[in-house]
Amino acid sequence: MPYEAVIGLEVHVQIKTRSKIFTRVAAGYGQPENTLTDPVVLALPGSLPVMNKAALDAIIKAGLLLGCEIAPVCKWDRKNYFYPDSPKNYQISQYDQPICLGGHVEIELPGPARNVMGEHKRIPLTRIHLEEDVGKLNHFATDSLVDYNRAGTPLMEIVSEPALHTAEEAFAYLTSLRATMIYGGISDCDMEKGQLRCDANISIRPVGAATLGTKVELKNLNSISYVRDGIAHEIKRQLGVLERGGTIVQETRDYDGLTGTSQSLRSKEMAHDYRYFPDPDLMPVQVDEGWKQRLRAECPELPFDKQRRFLEQYQLPYTLTSVLVWDRALADYFEAAVASADTSQAQAVGNWIVNDLLRELGSAKLQLAETKVKPAQLAALVKLVESGTLRTNTAKEVFVEMFASGEAPDAIATRRGLNSAPTDAGELEQWCRDAIAGNPKALAEFNAGKDSAINAFKGPVMKAAKGKADPKLVDATLRRLLATM
Amino acid sequence: MSELVFQTITELSGRLATGEISSAELTRTFIARTKSLDQRVHAFNSFDAGDALAQAVASDERRAAGQSRGPLDGIPVGLKDVIAVTGQPLTASSRMLANFVSPYDATVTARLKQAGAVLWGRLNCDEFAMGSSTENSAFGPAANPWDLARVPGGSSGGSAAAVAAGEAVATLGSDTGGSIRQPAALCGVVGLKPTYGLVSRYGLVAFASSLDQIGPMTRTVEDAAIMLGAIAGHDENDSTSYRSQIPDYRAELKRRPGPWRIGLPREYFGEGLDPEIGAAVEQAVAFYRAQGCEVKPVSLPHTPYCLDTYYIIATAEASSNLARFDGVRYGHRSKDAKDAVDLYFKSRSEGFGPEVKRRIILGTYVLSSGYYDAFYLRAQKVRTLIRRDFLKAYEEVDALLTPTSPVPAFKLGEKSDPLALYLCDIYTIGVNLAGLPAISVPCGFTRAGLPIGLQLIGQPFQEADLLALAHVYERAHDWCRRRPAFAAVASSG
Asked: What is the DSSP letter of B303?
């Protein structure tokens, strides 16, 4: 019997705010243990939470970016459970009135080839709600210690409908969601720092069945690749159970990305009763039109929308857009450079960014924001190449120097005498004749129909020209002379 | 000097201003008196005499430099042991917090410090403010200064007894279902529960967050006005604190009281009311009538549901609020726990007393899956109806007048059945459920010499009116000038 998998993802995204969600103390990562604490974070007797408005702004913005309906009134609930990483032994969360309802994440599946756009889908969301992160337990031989630095970091839980069917789709979903959050300035989504965490609910059913199979929750999917591998593994495991005539048990499983295996954490019988009730320490929040509009104005164009526009407006090849649009700063850099050059040079600009700028940034281990090459300077370099003033190879050298010093390309070219020489047709023609005469073998090959043999003449010409001849003109001259021989 | 310890804030601040006494002298007097008396009253869980004296000296220095901060500067004020003071114990009268020292100030603490008050001692109460007799204190019950064999009421029993016994000029209590007003009534002092949201709860060990309010316990209504003025007002650390203009409550007392219309809720004068208390309250009604007030019966029809509603909401919130006491970060930690879960079970079993456990279990139950709608959600709806009862009554009257407690101070150990104790709060809990301000003022004594309290209930954030109404009564009577015999003997001996 053919089966299909049904997957729903619960993604936790830490919101990038200066202070924690319910108090003034700084939010952060990598600080000495228990330094980002105060009476509220440690849940000292008498301490009270006060909502951080920046966290609310961020989640509303996330909701707007993902097309959610923003609740006109939202409230805060206590989720009660005992665990040493939870200082109050309840988590302030949202139960029945989440701030964002509905919405979707647009995904792109792999295309038939690398340079061909794949199928796009909209994965519907159930809800997004706001809650607080918990601390971190560190286990030692005989003791466990708790670090509360992370406790109280604002956290969004983004819940998808059970509408994904393959590990590839889950991978694409997370990739798109992550880029959207980074685009919106909502989170850096660094999975190594726990800024984005994913749990997956997975079940399988006969293709065409109307009801869902028994679901298994998969936890600890600590990287986007682990999400893909873990889900693929779980689907295979469930298929195996059914093929052996077994039944799927509703449970929570822990995926180990290193070994590619999973083990049961707890079964449904041990599920918590969270005793949710409205938190009496916090007032409900009313989100009016003005508030939403102000945030809507701050919402950036999303990557897929940008990609469609780049394809249309700049006539870029798909592969180039798929590099440019996933990093908002890179896309902005591209558009700034094109604005300084010309739309017709957009592809050349894009190639320079993707091939040269990214390579140099990579080897220098720099971020885009740190480069000394301003978009206008890159545009100037492209113009020098397109006008024939700089040969491509020379331009690459100029670029390396621009990258190192931040100097303008024409200044570098002039100082180093790299500009192609004004063409002296008579002199060039003589160098060409000499080159042809000096290589009868290549001439014979060319005459026998081997077009690439022409390249054998170009080296001596360039040498004679001390590298300053325009390659296009050299090629044209050689062909004109060869045609008469 | 025995006279000194029974004086009001107003009187003492006058004496401090003229230089007749210093804050250091005043504070030393209270320290000495408390040292000699409190073994019998047990109003204090602890006190830090050195710290109090240092504050008093600082107050005297301010005064000498012409920088006195007003009527509370240099006045010893005691705080219930559920209100945080930096560097002082914060036990909530529980073994759970027996060794906990607060690293921060409650907002009311910071405001009293700003007003120059000498923060004096940690006052006994029922464990985590759960109780009506102070018998639930893990450190032993407090006694009623009017009869040491009787309870001072609760949960702010220590705060009431300290004022009644002359161990503090004024104190702060907290009131979740009557915990300021009932002990005030039983000890013959003034106790004010402000409107929910008027006084910040930041730094108050939470019992039931939607009901808790901090308020003053004093000898006189005027003193209550002074104390309220110091602690009231919006606090950015408490999301439930209300943004309102805080009037000069003391100055407002002197304005001519309006033509008051006073309502007598029928449901508050029924079965279970001690006849002597009923008679004393009738006298107060007669007084207001004689003042030209219109007094008429009103109905608060949902009153019979108050107790049930209260014990669902309060315990539900408490079960969650007290979850943080787990032995992990601070507080009592069991010595022989095997693992995290065992640590929770053992630490909480050892740290909490029986009444606290009873309420945590009840609260956990009413929030449980499958019971939430039937209990907690239903109770919240009834709570709305209870509040509407009051607001409807206020369409006809300006204030309500009731007894504070159905019974006077009872004997220690007399009410061993928890339900019998819960009934002590039947006249006070409706006010908390409705979020209203109410004050208890002394209105007489039983034949056995036990104080009787009159409760006046006001409209939201109209504490100025409520205090003025109480002040009119108090000025015409001398109940607040009476001293417990024990206290007089104690100070002469």
From this structure: G
B235 vs A contacts (CB less than 8 Å): none
Mean pLDDT of B298-302: 98
Query: Cβ neighbours of residue A387 under 8 Å, at least 6 residues apart?
Result: none
Percent share of chain A, pLDDT over 70: 98
Residue B1 pLDDT greater than 50, yes or no: no
Q: Does the beta carbon of A271 lie under 8 angstroms from any beta carbon of chain B?
A: no
Catalytic (active site) residue B80: yes
Quick: pLDDT tens for A388-429. 788 888 899 999 999 999 999 988 988 887 776 555 677 888
Domains in chain B (CATH in brackets) are 4-266+394-492 (3.90.1300.10)
Among B239, B319, B325, select the one facing A48 at the smallest CB separation.
B239
Return the bridge partners of B80, or none: B123
Question: Among A362-376, B11-25, B250-264, whose mean pLDDT is lowest?
Answer: B250-264
- Contact status, residue B452 vs residue B442, Cβ threshold 8 Å: yes
* B240 to A281: CB separation less than 8 angstroms, yes or no: yes
Mean pLDDT over A160-182 rounds to 96
Average pLDDT over residues A379-390: 87
In chain A, what residues touch B201 (CB-CB under 8 Å)? 46, 48
Q: Does CATH place domain A425-484 in 1.10.10.410?
A: yes
Residue A214, helix vs strand vs coil = coil
Contacts of A83 in chain B (CB under 8 A): 340
Beta strands of A104-233 (E only): which ranges? Answer: 104-108, 120-132, 136-139, 144-147, 154-160, 196-206, 216-221
Q: What is the largest CA-CA distance in chain A?
A: 99
Size of interface A-B (CB pairs under 8 A): 101
Residue B155 Cα, gap to closest chain A Cα (Å)? 17
Whether the pLDDT of residue A463 is over 90: the answer is: no
User: What pLDDT, on a 0 to 100 scale, did the predictor assign at position B418?
Assistant: 84
| CA distances to A11, A220, A259, A360 from A191, in Å | 11, 11, 19, 25
Q: What is the CA radius of gyration of chain A?
A: 30
pLDDT > 70: percent of chain B: 98
Separation CA B348–CA A275 (nearest Å): 19
Q: What is the pLDDT of residues B396-412, one digit of tens each?
A: 999 999 999 999 999 99
B chain contacts of residue A44, beta-carbon cutoff 8 Å: 84, 102-104, 330
Task: Output phi, psi for A251, to 5 deg.
Answer: -160, 170
Instruction: Say if residue B318 is exposed, middle or buried (CB neighbours under 10 Å; 0-12, 13-18, 19+).
Output: buried
Is residue A269 pLDDT above 70, yes or no?
no
Marked catalytic residue, from B80, B113, B193, B346: B80
User: Among A45, A47, A282, whose Cβ lies nearest the Cβ of B239?
Assistant: A282
Q: How many CA atoms lie within 13 A of B131 on its CB side?
A: 35
Beta strands (DSSP E) in B323-473 are 399-403, 438-445, 451-457
Tokens of B106: 């409650």
Q: Helices B221-231 and B463-475 sit at what angle, rounded to 10 degrees?
A: 160
Closest CA to B193 of B376, B466, B392: B466
**Confidence at residue A85, expressed as pLDDT on a 0 to 100 scale:** 95
For residue range B126-154, what is the model confidence (pLDDT) as tens digits?
999 999 999 999 999 999 999 999 999 99
Q: Which of A46, A82, A275 sits opposite B204 (nearest CB)?
A: A46
In 3D space, the residue among B219, B119, B139 whose CA is nearest the CA of residue B484 turns out to be B219
- The torsion defined by the Cα of A319, A324, A326 and A331, in degrees rounded to 10, comes to -160
Instruction: Give CA–CA dist A104/A307, Å, rounded.
Output: 18
Domain assignments of chain A as residue spans, ordered by start: 3-292, 301-416, 425-484
The complex's ipTM works out to 0.96
| CA angle, B32 then B44 then B146, to 5° | 85
Angstrom distance (rounded) from CA B128 to CA B177? 13
| B22 is a catalytic site residue | no
Contact A380, A408 (CB under 8 A): yes
